[in-house]
Amino acid sequence: MKVPIAQPVMTEKMIEAAANALRNERLTLGESVFKFEEAFARMCGTKHAIAVSSGTAALQLSLQAHGVKAGDRIVAPAMSFVATTNAFVPFGGVPGFAEVSEKDYTLDPAKLKAALDNKTKAVIPVHLYGHVAMMDEINDVARKNNLVVIEDACQAHGAVYKGKKAGNLGNAGCFSFYPTKNMHVGGDGGMITTNDDKVADACSRMRHCGRKKGSNYEHDIIGYTYRLNSANAAIGIEQLKMLPEWNDKRRAAARIYDEMLKGVGDLVLPPTPTSDVTPVYHLYTLRTKKRYELKAHLDSKGVGVGLNYEIPIHLQPVYKEMFGFKEGLLPVTEKCCREVIAIPMFADISSEQIKYVVDCVKEFYG
Ligand SMILES: Cc1ncc(COP(=O)(O)O)c(C=O)c1O
Fold first, then answer.
1. I want to staple 78 with a disulfide (CB 3.0 to 4.6 A). Which of 91, 171, 213, 312 is the partner?
2. 14-39: average pLDDT
3. Is residue 4 in a domain?
4. For residue range 292-306, what is the model confidence (pLDDT) as tens digits?
């Protein structure tokens, strides 16, 4: 048996929706883009959603729309995909890193305060693997220190925190529709969610080359070509309809993994749902001191694995070179990144596939 790490869905209905958009709409910023935005904002419970070309673009524009600029410091966890901070380094934002909590791998609010300085303008909590960060505590630190809070919800479509959806818990939320995410758009894409009219307006103009509203060739802000294509948006509309069911299926698969992997070897299982957080298991991530050996075993058995994230952002070669970060800066992050290994997780994973993965893991531990 072969079990992939992820399995993006593309149905005939989605292909047909894309074909319709290609036949009948403007190819970028067509009707489907605006319908997708409306539906996504409704899902998150926010006033606005602005579709863009990627999750990285969403993070960049939402920071810039809040006035974050060159020389400003932005604090984020280093246990994340590199795009969390790649989003602002190119425009001169300076990364500062704060520790994550070992219990759920999200920003540790107790450590956040110490990571701030007088140049810090924003904080980016990452809802890693689909588990929402401790937003009340983070928002509290942010309020006291005048910081903008941009949620990196790129792995958390539909996740819930205290009754509210990810993307509606800070000043703006950022989503990625990269094909392996819980929902995608048949290629790259992203979304910004916000309740702030001015931020929404700035983001929608910046994605469209900084055009003045209602004008074609008059530009009053610096902008980018970060639009979403209409065919991708049409696929996104169909994917979004499936998201609640797909997230339920991911949670059900996670419950089976939790049950079957409890007490196996030295495995540390992922955080489970709490009274505050309903996660969406973008990834099902274990920790073990033997992750390279386990990976080699699972590779040999046809089981897909991911090392998300093998190298924390501050220790990525380019970040070490540009900013001089050194090992030892973030002991908890570094330890977790040395041990994490993701096993197959997708909505349609079958009980036979889950059993096979678990059997292979158990075989490894003898
Ligand atoms: C945590 C996180 N942040 C940011 C991104 C960037 O999204 P994209 O690849 O769409 O630019 C991703 C996804 O790849 C991600 O997982």
1. 312
2. 98
3. no
4. 999 999 999 999 999
pLDDT reported for residue 167? 98
Domain span at residue 261? 243-365
CA 208 to ligand 1 centroid distance, Å: 21
Residues 181 and 247 in one domain: no
Residue 7 lies in a domain: no
CA 240 to chain centre: 16
Residue 267 Cα to ligand 1 midpoint, Å, equals 27
pLDDT at residue 215 greater than cutoff 90: no
What is the CATH number for 334? 3.90.1150.10
* 84 Cα to the center of ligand 1, angstroms: 7
Model confidence, pTM: 0.98
- Range list of H helices, the chain: 12-24, 31-44, 55-65, 83-86, 109-112, 135-144, 197-206, 230-261, 291-300, 317-323, 331-339, 351-365
- Confirm whether 2 is domain-assigned: no
Pocket perturbation via mutation, ligand 1, pick of 52, 59, 81 by most ligand atoms within 8 A of CB: 81
Q: Name the residue of 5, 53, 59, 154 whose CB sits within 8 Å of the most ligand 1 atoms, as the mutation to test its pocket.
A: 154
**How confident is the model over 238-274, as pLDDT tens digits?**
999 999 999 999 999 999 999 999 999 999 999 999 9
Here the CATH number for the domain that contains residue 95 is 3.40.640.10
Rounded to the nearest 10°, the torsion over CA 332, 335, 336, 342 is 170
